[in-house]
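This entry is passed on directly below:
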Amino acid sequence: MLDIHFHYTGRRSTLLLSALKGRTMNVLIVYAHPEPKSLNGSLKDFAVTRLENAGHAVKVSDLYAMKWKASLDASDSMDGQASERFDPALDSKLAFENGRQTRDIAEEQDKLRWADAVILQFPLWWFSMPAILKGWVERVYAYGFAYGVGEHSDKHWGDRYGEGTLAGKRAMLMVTTGGWESHYAARGINGPIDDLLFPIQHGILYYPGFDVLPPFVIYRTGKVDEARFAKALDALGQRLDALWTAKPIAYRRQNAGAYDIPELTLRADMAPGQAGFGVHIE
Protein backbone atom coordinates (compact mmCIF):
# COMPACT_ATOMS: atom_id res chain seq x y z
CA MET A 1 0.00 0.00 0.00
CA LEU A 2 3.02 2.32 0.15
CA ASP A 3 3.70 4.76 -2.70
CA ILE A 4 7.06 5.29 -4.33
CA HIS A 5 8.46 8.74 -3.60
CA PHE A 6 8.84 11.33 -6.36
CA HIS A 7 8.96 15.08 -6.43
CA TYR A 8 7.21 16.94 -9.25
CA THR A 9 9.11 20.11 -10.19
CA GLY A 10 6.20 21.85 -11.90
CA ARG A 11 7.56 21.76 -15.47
CA ARG A 12 5.11 23.24 -17.95
CA SER A 13 3.58 20.88 -20.49
CA THR A 14 3.83 21.59 -24.20
CA LEU A 15 0.49 19.92 -24.81
CA LEU A 16 -2.84 21.70 -25.06
CA LEU A 17 -3.55 23.07 -21.58
CA SER A 18 -7.24 23.82 -21.79
CA ALA A 19 -10.06 21.91 -23.42
CA LEU A 20 -12.38 24.86 -22.91
CA LYS A 21 -10.74 27.43 -25.23
CA GLY A 22 -9.95 29.92 -22.49
CA ARG A 23 -12.96 29.38 -20.27
CA THR A 24 -11.85 29.22 -16.66
CA MET A 25 -13.35 26.68 -14.33
CA ASN A 26 -13.20 25.96 -10.60
CA VAL A 27 -11.66 22.66 -9.55
CA LEU A 28 -11.61 21.18 -6.06
CA ILE A 29 -9.14 18.40 -5.31
CA VAL A 30 -9.92 16.46 -2.15
CA TYR A 31 -6.59 14.81 -1.40
CA ALA A 32 -6.07 11.95 1.05
CA HIS A 33 -2.47 10.83 1.49
CA PRO A 34 -0.34 11.40 4.61
CA GLU A 35 3.02 11.83 2.82
CA PRO A 36 3.63 14.95 0.66
CA LYS A 37 6.67 13.33 -1.04
CA SER A 38 4.73 10.25 -2.12
CA LEU A 39 3.68 9.44 -5.66
CA ASN A 40 0.24 10.75 -4.74
CA GLY A 41 1.77 13.99 -3.56
CA SER A 42 3.61 14.40 -6.86
CA LEU A 43 0.47 13.66 -8.87
CA LYS A 44 -1.48 16.21 -6.84
CA ASP A 45 1.17 18.87 -7.40
CA PHE A 46 1.21 18.10 -11.12
CA ALA A 47 -2.60 18.33 -11.33
CA VAL A 48 -2.66 21.70 -9.59
CA THR A 49 0.04 23.11 -11.89
CA ARG A 50 -1.54 21.69 -15.02
CA LEU A 51 -4.95 23.13 -14.22
CA GLU A 52 -3.66 26.50 -13.08
CA ASN A 53 -1.45 26.82 -16.17
CA ALA A 54 -4.61 26.30 -18.20
CA GLY A 55 -6.18 29.26 -16.42
CA HIS A 56 -8.44 27.34 -14.06
CA ALA A 57 -8.89 28.10 -10.36
CA VAL A 58 -7.89 25.25 -8.05
CA LYS A 59 -8.51 24.59 -4.37
CA VAL A 60 -7.02 21.62 -2.51
CA SER A 61 -8.47 20.08 0.62
CA ASP A 62 -5.40 18.22 1.94
CA LEU A 63 -7.16 16.17 4.58
CA TYR A 64 -4.10 14.91 6.46
CA ALA A 65 -2.50 18.36 6.50
CA MET A 66 -5.80 19.80 7.70
CA LYS A 67 -5.94 17.13 10.43
CA TRP A 68 -9.46 16.46 9.30
CA LYS A 69 -11.74 14.94 11.92
CA ALA A 70 -13.01 11.73 10.36
CA SER A 71 -15.74 10.65 12.79
CA LEU A 72 -19.33 11.81 12.42
CA ASP A 73 -20.73 12.54 15.89
CA ALA A 74 -22.75 14.99 17.96
CA SER A 75 -19.90 17.52 18.07
CA ASP A 76 -20.50 18.27 14.37
CA SER A 77 -23.31 20.55 15.53
CA MET A 78 -22.43 23.66 17.51
CA ASP A 79 -25.53 22.89 19.58
CA GLY A 80 -24.58 19.30 20.31
CA GLN A 81 -27.02 16.47 19.79
CA ALA A 82 -30.67 17.39 19.45
CA SER A 83 -32.05 14.86 21.93
CA GLU A 84 -30.97 12.25 24.44
CA ARG A 85 -30.06 9.88 21.62
CA PHE A 86 -27.69 10.97 18.85
CA ASP A 87 -29.38 10.54 15.48
CA PRO A 88 -26.84 11.01 12.66
CA ALA A 89 -29.41 11.97 10.00
CA LEU A 90 -31.67 14.14 12.18
CA ASP A 91 -28.83 15.94 13.95
CA SER A 92 -27.10 16.56 10.62
CA LYS A 93 -30.35 17.91 9.17
CA LEU A 94 -30.97 20.30 12.05
CA ALA A 95 -27.39 21.60 12.09
CA PHE A 96 -27.44 22.19 8.33
CA GLU A 97 -30.86 23.86 8.26
CA ASN A 98 -30.11 26.14 11.20
CA GLY A 99 -26.59 27.12 10.18
CA ARG A 100 -25.16 25.38 13.22
CA GLN A 101 -22.65 23.06 11.56
CA THR A 102 -19.05 23.30 12.69
CA ARG A 103 -16.88 25.60 10.61
CA ASP A 104 -14.83 22.85 8.96
CA ILE A 105 -17.95 21.17 7.53
CA ALA A 106 -19.47 24.44 6.29
CA GLU A 107 -16.22 25.44 4.59
CA GLU A 108 -16.01 22.17 2.67
CA GLN A 109 -19.63 22.52 1.57
CA ASP A 110 -18.82 26.01 0.30
CA LYS A 111 -15.93 24.56 -1.72
CA LEU A 112 -18.30 22.03 -3.29
CA ARG A 113 -20.74 24.80 -4.20
CA TRP A 114 -17.85 26.78 -5.72
CA ALA A 115 -16.43 23.89 -7.74
CA ASP A 116 -17.35 23.05 -11.31
CA ALA A 117 -15.39 19.82 -11.02
CA VAL A 118 -14.24 17.73 -8.06
CA ILE A 119 -11.36 15.27 -8.01
CA LEU A 120 -11.13 12.75 -5.18
CA GLN A 121 -7.52 11.59 -4.98
CA PHE A 122 -6.42 8.70 -2.81
CA PRO A 123 -4.48 5.44 -2.61
CA LEU A 124 -6.63 2.31 -2.67
CA TRP A 125 -6.22 0.95 0.86
CA TRP A 126 -7.96 -2.29 1.73
CA PHE A 127 -10.18 -2.09 -1.34
CA SER A 128 -11.52 1.37 -0.60
CA MET A 129 -10.62 4.97 0.19
CA PRO A 130 -8.64 5.89 3.31
CA ALA A 131 -10.78 6.36 6.41
CA ILE A 132 -10.06 10.09 6.55
CA LEU A 133 -11.64 10.58 3.12
CA LYS A 134 -14.64 8.44 4.01
CA GLY A 135 -15.01 10.64 7.08
CA TRP A 136 -14.92 13.74 4.90
CA VAL A 137 -17.85 12.36 2.92
CA GLU A 138 -19.84 11.35 5.99
CA ARG A 139 -19.49 14.77 7.64
CA VAL A 140 -19.65 17.09 4.61
CA TYR A 141 -22.53 15.29 2.87
CA ALA A 142 -25.05 16.56 5.40
CA TYR A 143 -28.75 15.79 5.32
CA GLY A 144 -30.32 18.52 3.21
CA PHE A 145 -27.03 19.22 1.45
CA ALA A 146 -26.17 15.98 -0.36
CA TYR A 147 -29.07 13.72 0.57
CA GLY A 148 -32.61 13.94 1.84
CA VAL A 149 -33.55 16.46 -0.85
CA GLY A 150 -36.38 16.55 -3.37
CA GLU A 151 -39.93 15.29 -3.61
CA HIS A 152 -40.78 11.75 -2.55
CA SER A 153 -43.84 10.32 -4.30
CA ASP A 154 -44.93 7.26 -6.26
CA LYS A 155 -43.24 8.73 -9.35
CA HIS A 156 -40.25 10.59 -7.96
CA TRP A 157 -38.10 9.24 -5.14
CA GLY A 158 -36.02 12.21 -4.10
CA ASP A 159 -33.46 14.15 -6.09
CA ARG A 160 -30.64 11.64 -6.34
CA TYR A 161 -28.77 9.37 -8.77
CA GLY A 162 -28.33 11.93 -11.53
CA GLU A 163 -30.21 14.71 -9.75
CA GLY A 164 -29.54 16.64 -6.56
CA THR A 165 -27.71 19.63 -5.19
CA LEU A 166 -24.45 18.81 -7.03
CA ALA A 167 -26.00 18.18 -10.44
CA GLY A 168 -24.27 19.97 -13.30
CA LYS A 169 -20.83 19.42 -11.79
CA ARG A 170 -18.26 16.85 -12.85
CA ALA A 171 -16.24 14.47 -10.71
CA MET A 172 -13.34 12.06 -11.22
CA LEU A 173 -11.32 9.69 -9.07
CA MET A 174 -7.51 9.70 -9.10
CA VAL A 175 -6.48 6.37 -7.59
CA THR A 176 -3.19 4.59 -6.98
CA THR A 177 -2.83 0.96 -6.03
CA GLY A 178 0.07 -1.36 -5.33
CA GLY A 179 -1.50 -4.29 -7.19
CA TRP A 180 -0.93 -5.16 -10.83
CA GLU A 181 -3.51 -4.07 -13.39
CA SER A 182 -4.22 -7.76 -14.07
CA HIS A 183 -5.14 -8.22 -10.41
CA TYR A 184 -8.02 -5.80 -11.00
CA ALA A 185 -9.06 -7.14 -14.40
CA ALA A 186 -12.42 -8.79 -15.15
CA ARG A 187 -11.14 -12.14 -13.80
CA GLY A 188 -8.48 -10.77 -11.47
CA ILE A 189 -8.16 -11.99 -7.90
CA ASN A 190 -9.00 -8.57 -6.42
CA GLY A 191 -12.13 -8.13 -8.48
CA PRO A 192 -12.67 -5.71 -11.37
CA ILE A 193 -11.53 -2.18 -10.56
CA ASP A 194 -14.84 -0.81 -11.88
CA ASP A 195 -16.70 -2.96 -9.35
CA LEU A 196 -14.46 -1.91 -6.46
CA LEU A 197 -14.92 1.76 -7.31
CA PHE A 198 -18.65 1.48 -8.06
CA PRO A 199 -19.78 2.33 -4.49
CA ILE A 200 -17.67 5.49 -4.62
CA GLN A 201 -18.44 6.57 -8.16
CA HIS A 202 -22.13 5.64 -8.24
CA GLY A 203 -22.95 5.94 -4.54
CA ILE A 204 -20.87 8.90 -3.36
CA LEU A 205 -20.53 10.94 -6.57
CA TYR A 206 -23.50 10.13 -8.83
CA TYR A 207 -25.98 9.96 -5.93
CA PRO A 208 -25.93 13.75 -5.24
CA GLY A 209 -25.84 14.56 -8.94
CA PHE A 210 -22.26 14.63 -10.23
CA ASP A 211 -21.51 13.60 -13.80
CA VAL A 212 -18.84 10.97 -13.11
CA LEU A 213 -15.90 10.53 -15.44
CA PRO A 214 -14.03 7.23 -15.77
CA PRO A 215 -11.36 6.97 -13.07
CA PHE A 216 -7.66 7.63 -13.53
CA VAL A 217 -5.84 4.67 -11.99
CA ILE A 218 -2.12 3.94 -11.60
CA TYR A 219 -1.19 0.35 -10.77
CA ARG A 220 1.97 -1.20 -9.24
CA THR A 221 3.00 1.98 -7.46
CA GLY A 222 5.99 0.21 -5.90
CA LYS A 223 7.42 -0.32 -9.40
CA VAL A 224 7.08 3.21 -10.75
CA ASP A 225 10.44 4.34 -12.15
CA GLU A 226 11.23 7.61 -13.91
CA ALA A 227 9.99 6.33 -17.27
CA ARG A 228 6.68 5.12 -15.88
CA PHE A 229 6.34 8.32 -13.89
CA ALA A 230 6.74 10.42 -17.03
CA LYS A 231 4.13 8.31 -18.83
CA ALA A 232 1.78 8.66 -15.87
CA LEU A 233 2.10 12.44 -15.92
CA ASP A 234 1.44 12.53 -19.65
CA ALA A 235 -1.67 10.36 -19.26
CA LEU A 236 -2.93 12.38 -16.30
CA GLY A 237 -2.33 15.63 -18.17
CA GLN A 238 -4.48 14.43 -21.04
CA ARG A 239 -7.25 13.44 -18.63
CA LEU A 240 -7.12 16.85 -16.95
CA ASP A 241 -7.19 18.64 -20.30
CA ALA A 242 -10.37 16.71 -21.13
CA LEU A 243 -12.00 17.20 -17.75
CA TRP A 244 -14.91 19.13 -19.29
CA THR A 245 -15.17 17.36 -22.64
CA ALA A 246 -14.80 13.66 -21.79
CA LYS A 247 -17.97 11.58 -21.75
CA PRO A 248 -19.13 10.66 -18.23
CA ILE A 249 -20.06 7.13 -17.22
CA ALA A 250 -23.58 6.54 -18.53
CA TYR A 251 -25.26 5.68 -15.24
CA ARG A 252 -29.01 5.31 -15.41
CA ARG A 253 -30.94 8.16 -13.80
CA GLN A 254 -33.22 7.11 -10.99
CA ASN A 255 -36.26 9.18 -11.94
CA ALA A 256 -36.00 8.94 -15.73
CA GLY A 257 -38.13 5.80 -16.10
CA ALA A 258 -35.56 3.00 -15.89
CA TYR A 259 -36.54 2.02 -12.33
CA ASP A 260 -39.82 0.98 -10.78
CA ILE A 261 -40.74 3.40 -7.99
CA PRO A 262 -40.90 3.11 -5.02
CA GLU A 263 -39.20 -0.31 -5.23
CA LEU A 264 -36.22 1.27 -7.05
CA THR A 265 -35.45 -1.91 -8.95
CA LEU A 266 -34.47 -1.84 -12.59
CA ARG A 267 -37.45 -2.48 -14.87
CA ALA A 268 -37.71 -6.06 -16.11
CA ASP A 269 -37.22 -5.03 -19.73
CA MET A 270 -33.93 -3.28 -18.91
CA ALA A 271 -30.88 -5.57 -19.21
CA PRO A 272 -33.12 -8.68 -18.95
CA GLY A 273 -31.54 -11.67 -17.26
CA GLN A 274 -28.61 -9.61 -15.99
CA ALA A 275 -27.69 -8.45 -12.50
CA GLY A 276 -24.84 -6.70 -10.71
CA PHE A 277 -23.32 -3.25 -10.89
CA GLY A 278 -23.17 -3.22 -14.67
CA VAL A 279 -26.94 -3.13 -15.16
CA HIS A 280 -26.99 0.40 -13.79
CA ILE A 281 -24.98 1.65 -16.75
CA GLU A 282 -26.83 2.26 -20.00
